[in-house]
């Protein structure tokens, strides 16, 4: 699938270069693309922004890359500015997927196509396409790691659950994917959530903030685990996992004897913890590939050459319509394969991980 996509990107690149700009085919001026990203607190979004910037520039686009510091009001003004600056298209990684309806209405009035990037923008007709990873599968991978690592025998094991930010549509997909694997074990009693906190609302972590997760984990340790061990923790994202690890080590767990812990994004600080055997798993999502998908979508829409490639038209309803989506495949990463996937795959150097 990725190979097919790459081939088509090459084709689009070639066609775009021949599209009427005969004066200077090497540097066509295709106008401005607005890249509205949510935050620089999480390393992945920095990579997303930089990858798109360089790929757009190769195709002759200027970009305005803006980060909104997890503040929805700031993101709305940044998008408005991009519209006022005459952007030809917008790529938006939303902070709160429900709060962009009005500003995107103004983008639609100016005939500016919008790509919903990684996170689905909800409650509006004014998005053209969605580019993301298979979010349900991310949760399935995290939960599968937990059940496989705990093993099937050995009596009831204790598990606690964490989810992402409730205003991010992805968070529900990750959680539902994970629960599709975990629920039968919880029902049979082989996994026990001793805190009793099992609903998405009870376990969500506002703004994916590691500090918020750390506080909740510390509370669970004193309320529920004063005299017993927690065996596994479902965490949806590496930054949350690091917060949980801080609470656990401050609560007396040795770094080498932590519960089974999951994550997402293969952030460098977490890959180091995986190499040391502290965090068990993460889910790697190659943001270079996601950038390619979004860039290809924008380029097709702006030049009219080819059509954006999609591979899912049913899974992502944003409350108004089923949004045509391209889903990339996530990869589960553990101590056993991080070298092959992340280092041999060119995402990190060995020195970055050991440094
Ligand atoms: C999600 C995204 C994850 C992770 C998280 C926190 O929307 O899909 O990969 O980055 O946000 O930033």
Features:
355 residues, alpha/beta, Rossmann fold, 6-stranded parallel beta sheet, 4-stranded parallel beta sheet, 45% helix, binds beta-D-galactopyranose
Topology:
Layout: H1 2-17, E1 32-37, H2 43-58, E2 62-67, H3 72-84, E3 89-92, H4 101-109, E4 114-117, E5 129-133, H5 135-150, E6 157-161, H6 169-188, E7 191-192, H7 200-203, H8 210-224, E8 232-234, H9 238-250, E9 260-261, H10 268-275, E10 281-284, H11 287-303, E11 325-328, E12 331-334, H12 338-343, H13 350-354
Parallel strand pairs: 1-2, 1-3, 3-4, 4-5, 5-11, 6-7, 6-8, 8-9
Antiparallel strand pairs: 10-12
Beta-D-galactopyranose (GAL) binds next to loops.
Structure, explained:
The structure is a single chain. By secondary structure, the protein is an alpha/beta fold. The protein has two domains: 3-134 and 286-329, Rossmann fold, CATH 3.40.50.2300; 135-284 and 349-354, Rossmann fold. It is built from 13 helices and twelve strands. Strands 2-1-3-4-5-11 form a six-stranded parallel beta sheet, sandwiched between helices. Strands 7-6-8-9 form a four-stranded parallel beta sheet, with helices on one face. Helix 8 (210-224) packs parallel to helix 9. The longest helix has 20 residues, at 169-188. The site of beta-D-galactopyranose has 12 residues, from loops.
